[in-house]
Design brief:
Elements (H helix, E strand, L loop, with lengths): L10 H15 L16 H6 L22 H5 L6 E7 L2 H12 L3 H18 L5 E4 L4 H7 L3 H13 L8 E3 L11 H8 L3 E3 L1 H4 L3 E9 L3 H12 L4 E9 L2 H4 L22
Parallel strand pairs: 1-6, 2-5, 5-6
Antiparallel strand pairs: 3-4
The protein binds zinc ion (ZN) (2 copies).
């Protein structure tokens, strides 16, 4: 994001500068390891694990041979593709929990650079950026939607509008923890509504911090299509893959209780 000649500073650059300035006032601790001095340190970045190369071309879940998985074959999702940057473990899990529960807002800007890199490499024909909405109860309790902190800098970097109000929840859903993929689908089915005025005839990407089975983004994609969206893509910072899922399910439905801060370093 260097400026040269008569270039005007971009909105993304100014957003980045704002967080840099806040770092001077409130020096940060790393969201992954707790070390003082960086919001997201080099060590944590290099130890964060990416998804394997062989994934389902639709839902992005690890899949030997890179073939379409059974779930996408049996029940094709309304989204075109869903992709994630990291496996939900280690420093990535710590950072997401800190972003979500510890009001570490600046961490969103640091982590978003990975989403931006992935989005640019995928080259999807995106026109709008939106996020999975929190339930009203969680929005009141938390005060912010952590996915918006990832999505806003992404939209600024891609220079397309960010419309966080595009999807609303129509009902509360129970925690997805402990549910099978099928049960998760049922739990969030028709739990969302999308605003046609904002998404009609647009290609929309839905951002979330972490996904497990993709059920929530499936449900959001269905709502967007019902509102006339042209096509829908999904992008998450992390994904809980099978080996993690049995022990440490991710918060696919944004409910508290399934994750605790007990495994986090003490900051
Ligand atoms: Zn670190
Ligand atoms: Zn699939």
């Amino acid at each position: 994001m260097k400026l040269s000649g008569t270039d005007k500073p971009s909105a993304f650059f100014l957003y980045h500068l704002m967080w840099e300035a806040l770092d001077w006032i409130y020096p940060p601790y790393c969201g992954g390891c707790g070390q003082f001095g960086n919001r997201w340190c080099e060590t944590c970045q290099s130890s964060a694990e990416n998804l394997p190369a062989e994934i389902c071309p639709i839902c992005g879940n690890p899949q030997p041979g890179g073939t379409v998985c059974h779930r996408c074959t049996d029940e094709p999702p309304a989204f075109r593709q869903l992709r994630s940057v990291f496996i939900f473990k280690g420093p990535v899990r710590n950072a997401i929990h800190r972003l979500k529960y510890d009001r570490d807002m600046g961490l969103g800007e640091s982590l978003s650079k990975h989403l931006i890199d992935l989005a640019k490499s995928l080259n999807w024909p995106l026109e709008r950026v939106t996020t999975v909405p929190l339930s009203n109860a969680h929005l009141i309790e938390r005060g912010y939607n952590q996915s918006n902190l990832l999505a806003r800098p992404l939209a600024l970097a891609l220079q397309i509008p960010f419309i966080p109000q595009a999807i609303k929840r129509t009902r509360e859903t129970r925690s997805q923890v402990g549910l099978s993929a099928k049960e998760r689908d049922i739990n969030v089915r028709e739990a969302f509504w999308a605003n046609a005025n904002l998404v009609k005839n647009k290609t929309v990407v839905v951002i979330d911090d972490v996904t497990t089975t993709g059920s929530t983004i499936r449900a959001c994609a269905s709502a967007l299509h019902a509102a006339g969206a042209l096509s829908v893509y999904g992008l998450t910072l992390a994904r809980a893959v099978l080996q993690d899922f049995s022990n440490n399910p991710a918060d696919d439905a944004h409910q508290p209780g399934e994750v605790t801060a007990s495994h986090l370093p003490i900051f």
